[in-house]
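#struct-queue
[09:14] JT: dropping the first one here, sequence first, then the structure tokens:
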Amino acid sequence: MPGTVLLLAASPVGRGCLVDAASVLPVLAAVAPGVLSGTETANVVELADPLEPQAVLTRLRAAATASGPLTLFVTGQLQLDRKQHLPHLALARTTPATVRYTAFPWAWVREELRLRAPGTTTLLLDLHADAETWQWLRAHPLDSGRTNAVYGRIAPPPPRRAVAVPSYMKAVATVLRSGYRPPLEELHQQALGRLGAEGYADVVLSAAGVGAGVPGGSAPSPPSALKGPRPQTPDGLEDGGRSGKGVAPSREGGRRSQEGAPRSPDSAAPSREGARRSQEGAPRSPDSAAPSREGARRSRTSAPQGHDGDPHIAVASAAQDGRHADADGIAAEHEQAAGRAHGRGSEEALHWTEVRADLAMLAGDPVRSCRAWLAVAGARLAVGQAPGTAAVEAAVDRAHHQWGQIHDPVPARELGLALAELRGRVPGRRAGALDHVRKQLVQLQVPG
């Protein structure tokens, strides 16, 4: 049976661009269609920097009606709309103020794919998040459908005025250009291995047929007709992110799949009420690397509240505006209040230490960020968390990534020794992490 492949690369034009998404398309286009799909033959549809969300919806809907295997390669950046604070894939015309109208709601991905037969849909994702979305990802897993295989990564914001490269997707394409498509988990691990230390800060998405977590809100359905005014922006892109509450591999969750059910173009859009019911019935998979939602709620009540009652929004807004000292000040206030109320090693306090570590990264201060992540990892181990716990591994991975950004040899030596000791206890999931630290320490003329 022939397969279907949708190659989607999208990012805003101009100052809001975080990643050169379209640069991966020539590399993917050089791969034989059958290798992209994992089938003998395949139809390939390419969308490069689309302008309108309805255009993306039309192509996605058409691909979702295919009876054979469907593979989506999606590269781009995630942003939240200002009204509902829900994630969207930014398109060419998207700005922070127009996300609601010019970006593609991630909930539509889940809704368009939910009626496909289980085991027939694969998503390979290379996404970058802006500062606000990176904070939001702490509490929400990215939902691409429970019955879909989802692999990839979500990367933190690049430094200011820098444009990132879709390194993960380019690594996937490079592996596939050999003409052989390994099993998806192996392909995923090979791509991560090619990233090296660059990828230690990422949220890793790895779920064979089980998504990355079920969102908490209701998701309005996509428009069934592409005419007239655009309906209310949908909810639903929720993702296990790291700088705030979700550092672990995400588990995406969708709902009701109907095997072999044919779809007409308009029947693909469920009713708004149906979408609401479908999500209410779905169990939420916890993000083991993050504090519980209840823990985060308690920490927010321990200190003065921020914008809209949620200090995370105030922190993200300040960081997005370049007011890094203000953002860190808000987070420090909540960190201290949580420590007084629950103890310095509590999840509530460590959550805010993690936030401050991410804020230091966003401010371009890798020394402070690395030091904070090392402190988080040490605190988690001190209270008895196992070295293989996702939260511990995530903290060490992020410390490792930030250490690699330090150019001053003095703090690099100091923090490198601490990192090497931690890597001896927490090697992480990627082979060679401890060896990488030791080699770098040798270059710094420090015995590891």
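[09:21] JT: and here's the second one, same format:
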Amino acid sequence: MMITPVVLCGGSGTRMWPLSRSGYPKQFLNLYGESSLLQQTVKRLDGLEQVAAPIVIANDEQRFLVAEQLRQLAFDGARVVLEPVGRNTGPAISAAALIALRQDPDATLLVLPADHVILHKERFREAIQRGLTQAAAGELVTFGIRPTGPRTSYGYIRRGEALIDADSAYRVAAFVEKPNLERAEQFVANGDHYWNSGMFLFRADAYLSELEKFAPDVLAHVKEAVGKSRQDLDFLRLDPESFSAARSDSIDYMVMEHTQHSVVVEAADLGWSDIGTWSALAEISERDAQGNTFSGDVVALNTRDTFVRSEHRMVSVVGVDNLIVVETADAIMIAAKDAADDVKKVVEQLKAQGRSEGQTHRKVYRPWGSYEGVDRGDRFQVKRIVVNPGASLSLQLHYHRAEHWIVVSGTARVVNGEDIILLSENQSTYIPLGTPHRLENPGKVPLEMIEVQSGSYLGEDDIVRLQDNYGRVQFS
């Protein structure tokens, strides 16, 4: 039986602000370990037998982030499918099922969110192997995590009768919404409830058959979106009009809760966490004798049970207890551990105020590299630009600003109007307002440079693209 992994790469991770933002959400961050959560999800497939190239469901804005992180793994077999709008897991998995069936009429889907941590990889693979028996029989398998405590931020699965031929598989008696603390404590004490991991294993045709029963309208729209999809570079774009017409809902609400006679929960102890809050990350992180976790440049005195992550500056904490402190280049978040779930409300407030800190970092990633704001004032701003080897920005012009480029390291090939010049370390050029220009890195090491912009308007939307290697039709 060939397994087709489906990696769900949407989501904004607002409760992990200020590190996770809508422009660079938590699945792309190295929150736990040396690689991003997306990369860990893909690497977790190593060791599984008969695995096809995964289908990665992502949104348009983050398509190049997905491609770059897969490239860093030297992993070029994934099929990246772009949602024009987010429609939750039900329609996303439906699109993946239809796409998988194009290549394999017997495709079995392994659905994995891209932003989870699993500490016990071998147990994960063993749970998948156990679930294949039920999936082959047409069952929809969901993976339940044995709870280690009463968590109110997770949904639960109540198990029913045990399957005769499987000592860790049960019929699903009910899917339970996130409980209050008293109910969560009862669930743990009873021993018949599991955390709902959001991971699934089933035949693609079995899932679509159930979807046809309970959400035929969604299936019709998604079929049309897949049928009208188009290839764009390495990405498959779902038809915007058709996919947008599908109602937004999760796979649990759309299918699983209506077809419990066909759903099996495979109970597992995987060292699993969805890292839904900073407190959840603190729980699985290594702690010192005082219960603290420090990352980055941190100085602490008389501090207990506190999580501090410093990304840029030195952070000092004195005489505090049970806190979360996260520092980035443009924001600092301090919260009581038991209030970490409310961090998302800060993001909502930032959005309501029209502030950029809720969406983007000071450092912004692009398909060619990155840029980072260094300084800004009236009629000027300074950026640090890094261009990857062999990459280039679009041929473009600006109506409202001129630019000065100074090479810090590497080699730049610059189109400046009618001129083409090569610049090396400590050399510079001036791009007059309204002049077509392009920046390329012809070398084998990253190109680092400082850009000084000056003019009456310095917004990122003052870009007119004349040519672009990445198929972008809007500024980005």
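[09:30] RK: nice, looked through the second one.
[09:31] RK: The radius of gyration is 25 Å.
[09:31] JT: good to know. The chain has eleven helices and 30 strands.
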